[in-house]
Amino acid sequence: MFRFAHIHFFYLLAVIPVLxxxxxxxxxxxxxxxxxxxxWNVVRQLMPGYSIxxxxxxxxxxxxxxxxxxxxxxxxxxxxxxxxxxxKGIDLMICLDVSNSMMAQDIKPNRLERAKQxxxxxxxxxxxxxxxxxxxxxxxxxxxPITTDYAAxxxxxSTINTGIVPTQGTAIADAIETAANGFGxxxxxxxxxxxxxxEDHEGNVLEQAEAxxxxxxxxxxxxxxxxxxxxxxxxxxxxxxxxRKDQNGQTIxxxxxxxxLQQIASVGKGMYVRATTSxxxxxxxxDEISKIEKSEIEEKQFSDYEDRFQYFVAFALFLLxxxxxxxxxxxxxxxxxxxxxxDSQ
Length: 345
Known about the structure:
The protein contains eleven helices and 13 strands. The chain is of the alpha/beta class and about 350 residues long. The chain folds into two domains: about 1-80 and about 305-335, no CATH class; about 90-295, Rossmann fold. The strands form four sheets. The protein has a six-stranded mixed beta sheet, sandwiched between helices. Strands 1-2-13 form a three-stranded antiparallel beta sheet. A two-stranded antiparallel sheet has the order 8-11. The longest helix has 22 residues, at about 50-75. The relative contact order is 0.18.
């Protein structure tokens, strides 16, 4: 078993591309400055020891060292002792809609982000339950197999976005089927929570709900969005550029289909809750799920972990030592072999 004790430090890796941009800007500025003295090829002949390539190599070494130190800060750990533990809980699969319509902002900041925030809060309240995450749009995929590793569940939830599923649509039936199969041969009490705006693009969702009930799986649904609907934003990078339009140039309004979600919950022996601007309803659903009799779950898990950060610190020091021996100016043997001579390109 391998894990990172402090995954939030991974955000520091964002510094590396920022530094790379500054390096490129610096090299462009330096070249323009030298070009003031004449043609670049002539100026380069007057500076035989100057090497852009070695500057880039030094940056790669330093970036690698920085990345290694960041990974060391996350404290990589490996499990060293496996033991059996007994828990009381249920098996829970959360099916989260990641279609473009979930970016509608009738629930702030948008439907998808609010759902993710609620899932993370739910994870914080789990005790002994196993959970998994299914993401779906035009197709359904397992984002996280059923587990009791709540730290991993929160990490995987935070990375979910609308680009994670390439096919657009809202395949609720496929999501229910994938979730039901994801429980495996578990004998524990099981529940599926479907979080979506309900705009289903298939016709056999109720049949899949019936099939799940036959496997003793309850299905609960949460409607994300308001009945009056909202336009679907279009983004270029992180900047909103407008709203999605149909072939006639009319703005597409994404409306909540409560009727379908109520039918799914009814067939699935569960309950339906509509999200509001103040809450998603996941808390109400979990309160209802908590009434399900919890069964004893026996599983093996690592009880002791050993730190492995020292390997990454050592690798960072190794890269820094190499950097000390790479000079920005060309040495005599480098002039002969020219492994860093990118300047002639």
